Amino acid sequence: MLQNTIKRNNYLEKLEDYKDSDFVKVFTGIRRSGKTSLLHSWADELEKKGINKENIIFISFESPKYNSIDNNNDLDKIIYEKTKNIEGKIYLFFDEIQEVKEWEKSINGYRVTLDCDIYISGSNSKLLSGELATHLAGRYVNIRVYPFSFKELLQYKEEIENIELTKENITSLFNEYYINYGGMPSILSLKNDESKKTALTDIYDSILLNDIIARFNIKNIDLLKRYIKFMVNSIGQTYSSEKIKNYLKSNDIYTTLNTLLKYNDYLQQTFFISKCRRYDLKGKKMMKIKEKYYLMDHGFHHTIVEKNSLWLPRIIENIVYIELLRRGYEVTVGRLGEERNDDNNKEIEMDFVCEKSGKYIYIQVSYTIAQEKTMKREIKPFFKIPDRYDAYIITTDPHDLSYKGVKHLNIIDFLLGDEI
């Protein structure tokens, strides 16, 4: 049984729906986001439902116990040996399966030859491409695992640390989540600030070394680190490879656009960053340029770049973006055209256009709209939209500042509520 962890019920409910189906359940997400704990948690749930422990086979490819498994043939020998005398349905769990060469062949083989229910996890978005997609087209379901939401963090504090939640300490815990550490599950059990900072740095180093440098055979590690720092410093801003190339050039670092594009792809594949594309709200089409990027967990921002109060509004925006993804929305940046201002053309944007099941929501995010000038600037895009859907502005302001049909939500109320 797992100790010192919470039940992530949103995920467990999905697994309940797919239990004993022919679908291979695929958990993907950034390293240390809780995929392994979720697999163990579901294995525990299966035992509670009366499944014999012998019928549950759990293999973690990060465990030294399975270092001898290099390819699908090695894996087959172990699985067929372990299952040869088991009666009834077998539940197969494979954690970080991307470590095994040609693992896709084995998964497809088990699905066909064994009476089994299969669960796998991986820290690379390409897990669902190539042979897996070919062999299992329409036969797998992807379950994206995110770091802890703020609601899950509070659940941990209440259930594991026995903290009574009050309005005051919820605000304090949010400030800790927001300003310092983010939601990586493994740091929550640590008691002091220095340990948490060290743990976040170690997670980042592990992603950098195992998921990027080793996997993609990166030679110029210094360039990669500089690129990552630039990206982290640019969260929520429009992206331009040419801009990054010129920035590096100004620091006497020379590279090609192709190299930078590859680095960008690697960071996306490992779920370190998430791309938010731009959508032309007037032309009703997706745009191919000027996308924005956000960190999968905003805690890495404080690990990689120096803390600065000027970045706090962007961290709020990052938190909202990931929470919207966590809730199942398709999220884009809304482009509304340009406005002439002081002899310059200024582009008008809606921070997030969110769609789920055909329903649209428009969202602006701001640190505060307490000042009238800021309020007018943030509200303006809502009245430029040709189609009027539900409109929200999310800030840190504690009081209701709703205005002319645009509903205001405090960031904590948004994270803990279910209105959006």
UniProtKB/TrEMBL annotation:
Organism of derivation: Methanobrevibacter millerae
Superkingdom of this protein's organism: Archaea
InterPro entries per the UniProt record, alphabetical: AAA_14, DUF4143, P-loop_NTPase
Regions crossing the membrane: none
Domain DUF4143: 210-367
Pfam families the UniProt entry points to: AAA_14 (PF13173), DUF4143 (PF13635)
Gene3D superfamilies, per database record: P-loop containing nucleotide triphosphate hydrolases
Segments forming domain AAA: 24-154
Signal sequence annotation: none
Full protein name: ATPase
